[in-house]
Amino acid sequence: MDKVIVRFFRWMNHIQRRYAYNRYKKDKRKELKERLSKLNTRRHLTNAQGNEIVEYYKRMTGMKISTLDHEYFYSRTGIYTKDYIPMAFFQSELIGRLNRMDLYDAYSDKNLDDVLLPSVKHPHFYLKNINGYYYFEGRAVSKEDALERCENLGEVIIKPSLSYMGTGVRKLHIIEDGKTDWDGKSLNEVFNEYKKDFLIQEAVQQHERMSALNPTSVNTLRMATYRSGMEVLLVYAVVRIGRKGQVIDNQSAGGISVAIRSDGTLGKYAFGSAGDDMIEKTDTGIVLEGYAVPSYEKAVETVKRLHYSLPLFDLVGWDISIDEEGEPVLIEWNGRPGPSQTACGTGYGELTERIFSEVWGRKNTVSYHV
After folding, report:
1. Which of 30, 148, 157, 114 shows the shortest CA–CA distance to 333?
2. Is there a domain that residue 361 lies in?
3. Three-class SS state of 222
4. Rounded distance, CA 125 to CA 90, Å?
5. Is there a single domain that holds both residue 113 and residue 238?
6. Which domain holds residue 179?
7. Is residue 354 part of a domain?
């Protein structure tokens, strides 16, 4: 009887996951169509290309996928490849086999980054609010004490600790006695705005070559690594650059991304939001192609080493800043890093089939409510 009940609940979970996946796929299809409508160039797949993509994924996964994502990225980059990864498929089917997403929420709090990964340089944490509790430089304090200790910190970064894609990140200047430059809000009002689960940390002073790309944002290296047994491989690396006057460099928040070549220099083109393609210069006038990223090899070595400290996650995204001394600084890590398919012109490139062959037989740990 117990086995029958277990089978029943497994069957129900499978049905719920398929329903959620189909719903999510429908939403992503609508979103992709809207993005396609904004592009300057629309490139349609040939029948041969469409068939190649469908057969490629069917051979690797047994599933039939939509080719709309391939058409979208092909339209943006001008590069056709069967290796593009549909984002609905990635979120619902692939990431849950790569990573233990059923445990991810317990690890994803940015307030815990220096605890989980103590062997790398972090921006100094002044204040952490974890589940409503305040900690100033590691010591539990009351809200009143936290306000008093933070009232003269000067220029800092404040951000939610459980959000993604740069949501809620703000450069904040605490002028004096708890006054701030955020629309005249007091520090107490700022705390109330964020409610709970946020942090205040020092503003990173980035390397002059990174600052030259855009001085108002911390321009980070987004690097993804894949762990295969005792080997950690670099899947892709891009530089994310803010636009003029922006604090955030995320592409989803208006920034641009450009691929980093294996020799540590930038590719020819950066990409922004839909329709903002083939950008050859930053807003500061820097020509991207061939621009050397400082300490690139050191950054690659750093993220590969760090990955061994996260055994529940075989695919990890790393946001790395290069500081004034050329040292890699971990801004944050991400256990759900989507492929950078505009800047890199492919999903996982030559690693695609290897990754699928190694993880597809695993249990999908994504909850059915995508």
Report:
1. 114
2. no
3. strand
4. 33
5. yes
6. 125-202
7. no
Give tens-digit pLDDT for 223-239.
999 999 999 999 999 99
0.85 exceeded by pTM? yes
Position 369 pLDDT exceeds 60: no
**Structure tokens given for 3:** 């086995």
For 319, list phi and psi in degrees, rounded to 5. -105, 110
Residues 167, 84, 317, 269: what is their CA dihedral angle, to the nearest 10 degrees? -70
Query: How does DSSP assign 266-334, residue by residue?
Result: EEEEEE-STT---B-B-TT--B-TTPBPTTHHHHHHHHHHHHTT-TTBSEEEEEEEEBTTS-EEEEEEE
Number of domains in the chain: 3
Query: pLDDT digits over 331-356, tens only?
Result: 999 999 999 999 999 989 999 999 99
Least confidently predicted of 20-24, 139-143, 253-257, 278-282: 20-24
Asked if residue 241 and residue 113 are part of one domain, the reply reads yes
User: Identity (one letter) of the amino acid at 254?
Assistant: G
Quote the tokens at residue 251. 């592409």
